Amino acid sequence: MLYLLYKEMSDFMSKLGNTLAMLKILETGRKYTVNELAEIIEVSPRMIKTYKADLEKAGIYIDTINGVYGGYVYNHKNNYDVSFSIHDVNCLEKILPLLDLKDKNNIEQLLEKIKTIVIYSDTTLIKGENTEEIKKKYNIVSKALKNNFDIEIQYKNKIKLITPHNFSFYKDYIYVTGYSKTDKDLRTYNLNEINIK
Question: Which positions ≥6 away from 110 have C-beta within 8 Å?
């Protein structure tokens, strides 16, 4: 019974995290297709429509543009009081070592969702090159991290094969840490300084 309650709560938190992530992404004012949102949040297009319906039940209305070049747009930034910041990410990262393995895995998944929300909502966080380019790199690395597969990067004119482990933020830059199979060592790279093959 307790397990079922825990599972229901865990599923609810995952859905809530995904819904907030979608809202924060749309707050940029840019139009996103259902498929683009599904790819960023890593859910099915059907779930994106479910999240939109849930937001509208809560009084947060997403505009729909119909047609071939249609999608979702949200032009009413911050008419609700839910947000995450880099401070929240840092707090969660500090408590991770204190948790048992099961709780640690759940918090790590939630933390990755919050990092996505922070990256898409706080453009001052992204320094260096074009913010859209950084977001694209973030999405590729995030997918590799979630699915535990390798990616090929170019760093200082050298090609490296890495297995990403986590993201971190430091002095307004986004970093990815992973095991470099090329160097046979754990390495950290600034997303600004790598190209993804």
Answer: 13, 14, 17, 92
Q: Which amino acid is at 166?
A: N
Name residue, tokens 């046979």.
184
Tokens of 65: 């543009």
- The residues pairing with 160 across neighbouring beta strands, listed in sequence order, are 153
The CATH number of domain 126-197 is 3.40.1800: no
Query: Is the distance from CB of 126 to CB of 120 less than 8 angstroms?
Result: no
Beta strands in the chain (DSSP E): 63-65, 71-73, 151-155, 158-170, 173-180, 185-190, 194-196
Closest by alpha carbon to 90, among 125, 124, 120, 123?
A: 125
The H or E element that residue 56 is part of is helix 45-57
Phi first, then psi: give them for residue 40, nearest 5 degrees: -65, -45
Site of tokens 């199979």: 181
Which residues lie across from 152 on neighbouring strands? 161
pTM above 0.85, yes or no: no
- E strands, 22-137, in order: 63-65, 71-73
Averaged pLDDT, groups of 10, the chain, 197 residues long: 46 69 84 91 90 82 85 72 65 76 74 70 57 80 84 92 84 83 90 86
Cα gap 98→114, rounded to integer Å: 19
Cα–Cα distance for residue pair 113/120, rounded to 1 Å: 11
End-to-end CA distance of the chain: 47
Where are the domains positioned within the chain? 126-197
